[in-house]
Design goal:
The complex is a heterodimer of chains A (81) and B (163).
Chain A: E1 10-14, H1 21-31, E2 38-43, H2 48-59, E3 62-69, E4 72-78
Parallel strand pairs in A: 1-2
Antiparallel strand pairs in A: 2-4, 3-4
Chain B: E1 6-11, H1 16-31, E2 35-40, H2 79-82, H3 87-101, H4 107-116, E3 120-124, H5 125-131, E4 142-145, H6 147-154, E5 159-162
Parallel strand pairs in B: 1-2, 1-5, 2-3, 3-4
Helix pairs in contact in B: 1-4
The chains are: A alpha+beta (81), B alpha/beta (163).
Chain lengths: 81, 163
């Protein structure tokens, strides 16, 4: 997915953290947003890409975008529920 | 979304290394919105024990998977060296350092995350009886329960794992 230019409402930096922290921190952060708002999460753990896809599938929160650059994954998640 | 998914785990090991897998799985499942329960039994009950939780150790003896103390020197510690007095403390300190350097939470921090996210902490009643552990020895949130209670919880689970 290419960068879409969507502006996040909050940014969560999980660079340097390993499983399970990126997913735990994301699920906590998403609850602090209003439904419809967008969270940007940054991570360096290569496992975070499949993990965020699975988390989105399980929770129903919408993964709008996954983008990797220089070993940093950038996820955009919209709170849907 | 379907009805909430449920994860039922058995934590049967009381070493520092084996404390992580059930707690990582439990906190992750809770972050996915699942209902989670862990049955802490036999040595696994140490993970709920106020005092022992702070002193979990990893043993270098009989543990061929234990990585070398210096990662760039691939020399395993022979069991006979690992059995010397003080070596379990050394191995424990090394593992704690690796975890810290990888920004991993401590076992106590993971347990706190589990509790905050509503993970049920079942303390095996039989283990408490056999090992003379009382409710007041256990962390807040630990519920004394027998195998029947856990199996009742697990009977509705989507995923069940024994660690």
């Amino acid at each position: 997915m290419a960068p879409s230019g969507i502006k996040p409402d909050q940014v969560l930096d999980c660079r340097g953290l390993l499983c399970p922290l990126p997913v735990i921190k994301t699920s906590k952060a998403i609850r602090s947003l209003a439904v419809g708002q967008v969270l940007e999460m940054l991570a360096t753990d290569p496992g975070s890409k499949p993990d965020m896809l699975a988390w989105s599938k399980q929770t129903g929160q919408e993964l709008l975008e996954v983008h990797e650059e220089d070993g940093v994954f950038r996820f955009l998640v919209r709170r849907t529920r | 979304m379907k009805q909430k998914r449920r994860l039922a785990l058995v934590a049967s090991k009381g070493t520092l290394d084996m404390a992580y897998p059930p707690l990582i799985l439990a906190t992750t499942a809770a972050a996915m919105g699942w209902e989670v329960g862990i049955f802490f039994t036999f040595y696994g009950l140490d993970l709920l024990h106020r005092q022992r939780l702070k002193n979990l150790k990893v043993s270098p003896v009989g543990n061929p998977a234990m990585p070398p103390p210096v990662r760039s020197l691939p020399v395993k510690v022979p069991d006979i060296v690992g059995a010397l007095p003080g070596m379990p403390s050394v191995a424990t300190a090394i593992m704690k350092r690796w975890m810290r350097e990888s920004n991993m939470p401590t076992v106590e921090e993971l347990l706190e995350i589990a509790r905050e996210s509503g993970v049920k902490l079942f303390a095996c009643a039989t283990t408490m009886g056999v090992m003379g552990i009382r409710q007041e020895d256990l962390v807040d949130g630990a519920e004394c329960a027998g195998a029947t209670t856990f199996l009742d919880f697990a009977s509705e689970a989507d995923v069940t794992l024994f660690v």
